[in-house]
Design brief:
Length: 193
């Protein structure tokens, strides 16, 4: 009987210890979640104060965040373009030097329109522009959202020519001649030549 009583006491102590450990774990989990939420909220406020996300981030999120992929095998509609986006990196040429430059990331957009005539080649129906540039660390709070594309290859989707024209006019770093050429080709798509 003495052995049974000691065994019961040991089991009760062990159960109380397990309950305290579980309670501490729950408190730690809640504190961690609150700290994570506070960090996300701080990041959101910081980015908002810097004007982020930008128009390109919002546009890409709307196109790439969808679960259903575009049908890329069917022909383009008259007012539609096929967009390809990818991020390239220009690394510091001398990372072992005393002064180290941050890497530069470039967001490229290639716009492919439907061929308007038999004489037009596939190459003539494609235009490539730089939509954005970022110099810094990919995980910085000030990094644009499109940085998630770095290292994940080219993403391809379809959009209306009008939407792409607006995005390019707002953000692309083009000279006047390049902008005119691209705008003319997108306008031609919109008009349905």
């Amino acid at each position: 009987m003495f052995v049974n009583r000691n065994l019961a006491l040991e089991r009760a102590r062990a159960a109380r210890k397990r309950a305290r450990i579980l309670q501490r774990a729950q408190v730690c989990k809640i504190e961690t979640e609150n700290a994570g939420n506070a960090r996300l909220e701080s990041r959101r406020r910081y980015r908002e104060s810097k004007g982020l996300p930008c128009a390109v981030d919002v546009w890409l999120a709307s196109k790439l965040g969808r679960g259903d992929p575009d049908d890329l095998c069917s022909p383009l509609l008259p007012d539609e373009v096929q967009c390809s986006v990818y991020v390239s990196c220009i690394s510091d040429p001398d990372p072992t030097g005393f002064f180290v430059d941050l890497d530069t990331y470039i967001l490229h957009l290639t716009v492919k329109t439907a061929l308007r005539s038999a004489e037009e080649s596939a190459i003539e129906s494609e235009r490539c522009v730089v939509l954005g540039q970022y110099q810094g660390l990919p995980r910085d709070w000030s990094a644009p959202d499109w940085m998630v594309l770095y290292g994940h290859g080219t993403k391809v989707f379809r959009d209306s020519a009008a939407t792409v024209a607006k995005i390019v006019q707002c953000t692309a770093q083009l000279g006047p001649e390049q902008m005119t050429t691209l705008a003319d080709s997108l306008a031609a798509v919109q008009l349905g030549d």
